[in-house]
C-alpha cells in the first residue's frame, strides 16, 4: 500500500466514485438518456442534481483536489448517494467534519476498572481492544479460546494481525472472509476518524502488503462497525464452536471496544467449559 492510498483527499474522491457507481439510475426514478452509459451507476451530473450542487464541484471532489466541503454539502451528498449511517460518518470524517453527536476519544491508556471488568466477566471469554484492534486486556477464557495466544509476543497481540498472519489461527474462523470484512470495515472507519494516527496507518499498510485478502477487501471501501453477531469457530482442541459476540463501548473511553463471547448453544457451552477446565 502506498502513502497516497492513505491520503484523505484521494480516499474521499475514490469513496464518492465508488458509491456513485454502485447506484442504479432506474431505481432512483431518473429519466433514461439516449446516450448509452459507458460506466456503471449514476453520472456526476445526476449526483449533482440530486444533491443540489454544481456538477463542476462534484467533478473536483472526485478528482481529489483537496476541497473541504461544508457539512451541508456532505449531508446533501450522503442523501444523494443513499449512504447508510456508517458510510455517512466515514464521509464526514474524510472531510474533517465529524457529524454532530459523534465522539472521538483517545485510546492512550486503559482504566484499571476496565481491565478488572474483563477479568470479572469470567467465565465468559472477553477482551478489550483499541481502535487499531490491539488487544489491551483479556481474561483466561479468551486466552485459551484463541489458539496459541500465549506464544504471541505482547507487541504482536492485535486481533487483525492474529487473524491474518498468525499460523495457528489461519483456519480458526469458519467464515474467515466475513470476519475480515467486518474487521476491515471497522479499521477503515477508525482511520478516517483518526487520519493522523501513524501507528494505525502503518498497521493497515503492513496488512495490505503481507496479505492479499486484506488488500482485496480494503479496496472495496466498506465501512462500519458490527456490534453483535454470531461466529463459528474451529478450535484445534475444543472442535467446532458457535458463539454469539457483543461489542460494548465504554462511555468515557469511546475508542475502546469490549468484546464478549457467549456460547450460542448447549454443545458449544459444554465445549467451552471443557476447554477452560484444562
TrEMBL record:
InterPro entries hit by this protein: Cro/C1-type_HTH (IPR001387), Lambda_DNA-bd_dom_sf (IPR010982), MLTR_LBD (IPR041413)
Molecular-function GO terms, alphabetical: DNA binding
PROSITE patterns registered for this protein in UniProt: HTH_CROC1
Family matches, as CDD domains: HTH_XRE (cd00093)
Protein name per Swiss-Prot or TrEMBL: Transcriptional regulator
Annotated organism of origin: Kitasatospora aureofaciens
Amino acid at each position: 500500500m502506498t502513502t497516497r492510498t492513505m491520503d484523505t483527499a484521494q480516499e474521499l474522491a475514490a469513496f464518492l466514485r465508488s458509491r456513485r457507481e454502485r447506484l442504479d439510475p432506474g431505481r432512483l426514478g431518473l429519466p433514461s438518456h439516449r446516450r448509452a452509459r459507458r460506466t456503471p451507476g449514476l453520472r456526476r451530473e445526476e449526483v449533482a442534481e440530486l444533491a443540489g450542487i454544481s456538477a463542476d464541484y462534484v467533478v473536483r471532489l472526485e478528482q481529489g483536489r483537496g476541497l473541504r466541503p461544508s457539512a451541508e454539502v456532505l449531508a446533501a451528498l450522503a442523501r444523494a448517494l443513499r449512504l447508510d449511517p456508517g458510510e455517512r460518518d466515514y464521509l464526514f470524517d474524510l472531510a474533517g467534519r465529524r457529524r454532530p453527536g459523534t465522539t472521538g476519544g483517545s485510546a492512550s491508556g486503559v482504566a484499571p476498572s476496565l481491565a478488572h471488568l474483563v477479568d470479572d466477566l469470567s467465565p465468559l471469554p472477553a477482551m478489550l481492544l483499541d481502535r487499531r484492534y490491539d488487544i489491551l486486556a483479556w481474561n483466561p477464557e479468551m486466552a485459551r479460546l484463541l489458539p496459541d495466544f500465549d506464544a504471541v509476543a505482547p507487541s504482536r497481540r492485535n486481533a487483525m494481525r492474529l487473524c491474518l498472519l498468525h499460523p495457528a489461527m489461519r483456519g480458526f474462523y469458519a467464515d474467515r472472509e466475513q470476519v475480515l470484512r467486518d474487521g476491515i470495515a471497522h479499521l477503515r472507519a477508525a482511520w478516517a476518524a483518526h487520519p493522523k494516527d501513524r501507528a494505525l496507518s502503518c498497521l493497515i499498510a503492513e496488512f495490505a502488503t503481507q496479505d492479499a485478502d486484506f488488500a482485496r477487501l480494503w479496496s472495496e471501501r466498506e465501512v462500519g462497525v458490527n456490534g453483535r453477531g454470531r461466529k463459528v469457530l474451529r478450535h484445534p482442541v475444543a472442535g467446532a464452536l458457535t458463539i454469539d459476540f457483543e461489542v460494548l463501548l465504554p462511555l468515557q473511553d469511546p475508542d475502546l471496544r469490549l468484546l464478549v463471547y457467549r456460547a450460542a448453544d448447549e454443545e458449544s457451552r459444554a465445549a467451552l467449559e471443557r476447554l477452560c477446565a484444562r
